[in-house]
Records
---
Amino acid sequence: MSPPASDLFSVKTIPGAGRGIIASRDISEDTTVLNSEPPVAHVLFREYRKEVCAHCFLYDRGRTLRVKDHDTGKVFCSASCQQEWLVHTGEQGRRAWQDLHHLIQTKSKSGKNSGGISLTDHRPDIEDVDRRWEKAQGEADEYVRTRSDTSNALDDTGRKQAKGAVASSTDPDIVGYLLSGILYHDQQPDRWREAVMTLAMHDEPYATTHDLEAHCNSFVQLSSSMPVSLLRSCTVQVCRALAAVSSHNAFGIRSGGEDGEEYMGYGVYPSASYFNHSCRPNVAKQRVGNVWKFWVTKDVRQGEELCISYLGGDEKDLNVRQRRGHLREVWGFICECARCQREGKASQDGG
Ligand SMILES: [Zn+2]
Ligand SMILES: [Zn+2]
């Protein structure tokens, strides 16, 4: 499924810019060029857990949604969304969410602090990352060994150990993001290989050692609590890939579609990640439920690149220097789009 197939465009290697989407014929304004698949991994932030439908991401101006699954803590906009979520998630998946919900609740009741962020915290390099994950693997192995192969439920010992794992800095949003990806991996291992492992990966995806710590602890926590049948997908490799793809392939899930005021979470949509950025894009996007729709906003000639904007809201109004600075910081590239080249030159000429 990845790269996306279409008779309107093809994915090509662009000198100096990785891969990009090139129109394979003239496309007229307003033509839809891509409907993405649902996210392969996503998170709805915990502060929105009562307000956003776990299936279709509907947000009703902050109202608490009525349909609630008390075992998993998920809410839905309707009974049919709940039903679809169940079908999509499967019985094992639901059980995994249930175990996680239980652990997070236990944790918040125990009132343990997740540990402050040190001011001297830094972005861990690849060696730090390797070393920390190796330690997490050892810890997870311990937990997995003590669990009975026949029982899917967590026994008392397992629960105690899991509590130990969550006592340190574990973030419910990180652990939820990882679980969603682990379930996807478990259900669709082939598509995982084709769609996720071929995405651009960030070498050093953890912004701080605190962040790295939280990812590793989340993995250990999941290893200790997840139904045994899912453990084959709860691996260091899967969790590291999920972090590595999130920084450069995730799309924000916002309340009003693209530029809504509420930033409710984010998701990884492989087919949509092939669009490069332009500060004057010819493709617009909108979230429709849990998928994205992309269409051209002007007539496009065969051979032209189809680009979206990675800038959100007010960021579009930044001047060229600020825009380039922001894109370099967040996305790791120096924008050389036509608009930046023209405005960059103009600002140089003007002194
Ligand atoms: Zn819904
Ligand atoms: Zn630009």
---
Amino acid sequence: MSSATRFAAVVSLVGLIMAARPAPHARSVGAATLTFFTDRAAFQASAPNLAVEDFEQGKVPTGGVMGCPGPIDAATSSPCFSAGAIRPGVQFTSSPAHDRCVTTCELALLGRGAFGAPSMVLVENFFGDAFVITFPGGNIAAVGADLVTYFRNGTCTIEVSGAKGVIGSTTAPCTSLGSFWGVKADEPITRLKITVPGNNVVGVDNLAFGTGAPPTIHVALDVKPGSDPSPINPRSQGVTPVAVLSSADFDASQMDEASMAFGPGGASAVHESYIDVNGDGRPDMVVHFSTQAARIGCGDTQLTMTGRTVAGRKIEGTGPIQTVGCTNP
Ligand SMILES: [Ca+2]
Ligand SMILES: [Ca+2]
């Protein structure tokens, strides 16, 4: 109740004092390629398996507004969020930063119905501030969100940063109901800075973020097909054959043999052929690699292979082994 009053008072009061800041100046560093999206379905098709933060674990009542101290992340424990309520890997702040709610809060959590919000959304709390999203964990190549503004619809400016600084900037509609905007980059995205001109506040809902890469395909290996268990002498100067088994979901002929790496040493494939080694009717890929180059350790119980399909999909496989010849010097 008092929080709601404070939000309204702060925004209107501060808005009178603070002039709208100029839009950020975009500056490209290096040669990052950014692809922008305005349709969530198209974005998700291009960048599957993203985590989504929808703020629905927030503690604001329906129709209410709460001031929230920043930064907000998975560790935050505040009147707005309990620890663990926000997904790991993302942090929300405003720019410039403000105090920790000693007098005011830099962020605000809107409940469903507040200012027309369709569900809980997080916004910055001062006219002219930027809403800032950082990804401390790294490895984020795709980010999308419903951009939200209150008081009126507007045009947001979104500045995208990587490790070396700003890698691009664009504009997109932001509305009280939320308007989707997304980006994919060919280098890790570390930060988004979102601003809206005029006496307005800006934030996001349904923030999707992640590597944007399809999941790794896990395959089964049959080391030394035809022998069970699969004895390997790590000191052997020869080659070891391994069958990469096809399955209903995976066609071993789609492996890019140049990408394959066996064992801790990452041995390359030196020869491959296609035979159905397990009699399931699906041809398997039989690859030979240098046993020495694989650096298998005495006592290892499994062999791991990594690689990619010709289409670029990551592959990982393991199969049991039994090391032999390790006892004699
Ligand atoms: Ca929400
Ligand atoms: Ca087979």
---
Amino acid sequence: MLNQHEDRHTESPALLHRTTTVERGAFAMGRCSCGWTGPARRARDSARRDAARHIDTP
Ligand SMILES: [Zn+2]
């Protein structure tokens, strides 16, 4: 007989890591709610990609 009691502690990483892109002068960098800051990029798209990669591999 299976015990069907499950603890629902499966939190999505997306909820723990809320990323934004911040601009500093000519550069843009990803920033996360967990405190992570990505490298300065010339393109905001690259900064956003860094943030997306950070969520995949914290
Ligand atoms: Zn994060």
---
Amino acid sequence: MTIHFGCTQCGKCCHNLKLPLSLAEAATWLRRGGDIELFCEAIPWPVEPPDTDAQAMHKRRLSFPVLCGALPIRVVVTVVASFDGACPHLQSDGRCGAYELRPRVCRIYPAEVNPFIPLTPASKACPPEAWSADKPVFLAQERLVDADTLEVINASRLAAAHDAPLKQHLCAYLGVSSAALANEGFVIYAFARDVMLEALERVERLERLGGGDAHALPASEWQFVSNRRATVDALASIEAHHAVASSLTEGHVRYMEFFASDL
Ligand code: SF4
Ligand code: SF4
């Protein structure tokens, strides 16, 4: 399949977004007056999958291991700059006001970072004319053509793998220990800007001092959160720590559901 693409500068990709950021990008975002949230999900990981399982290895790179009761799990924490309406950096002339410092995810749009998500124009904000056949070839034989975009995607993947164990420290500093079951939803934590920045700066210092090893952390108890009866019953049957979504009553924590609650 060949996909042509040329940006029309319509600016739609700078509105109503949830931008996944690296830890370094998140600190920059906060210092420039933005807000970020932590989207937490977790995968039961009772046994190590074989190295040949490419999807599992991908998830492994993005996650850190903890226990949930007696159940080994891997937690994926996505650091997200989310906003309704225009990005706080979008200028009235439609240009990015943070162009030199804009996150990688903005630099590669509309390409995908996740190697298991195919590029589908229909899922992107770009108008139909951006994909017309007179535009340059963007993707040929399932591969991106543009070397610069590929380089940024590679850097993004490396940063995600580098950040994964550090996120365990970030969560410990912030008291984050709940996650949705992967593909069911997210537990979302939103802290005040100064609290989040202080925690990120502690992680930066820890890394500078060479203490970025997750094993240096005190053990923390994680729990699954769900809004579905079948999930809660299954977790209870294997003595995994769990809570129902409606029990998240603290103001800075909420549950984003992918399925209607039956609890
Ligand atoms: S940082 Fe710049 S490129 Fe990214 S969404 Fe905001 S305005 Fe758009
Ligand atoms: S939505 Fe697509 S076409 Fe419009 S500015 Fe963003 S990248 Fe360009």
